[in-house]
């Protein structure tokens, strides 16, 4: 079964996917929505289903959840 990237909306095939927090991403799509830094699967926070690095999440939303 092919999943769809929550960032770009395009299909994510098995050989290219980065699975993080229950979603499949393209490797280049899994980046912080604020600073654009590439993220490691499972090592980031989310807000409104968008990934953020821990630093940007703390600055913007105050506390870390979803790690």
TrEMBL record:
Keywords: Acetylation, LIM domain, Metal-binding, Methylation, Zinc. One of its GO terms (molecular function) is zinc ion binding. The keyword Iron does not apply. GO terms for biological process: intrinsic apoptotic signaling pathway in response to DNA damage; regulation of gene expression. Coiled coil: none annotated. Seems to have a role in zinc absorption and may function as an intracellular zinc transport protein. This is Cysteine-rich protein 1. It comes from Salvelinus namaycush.
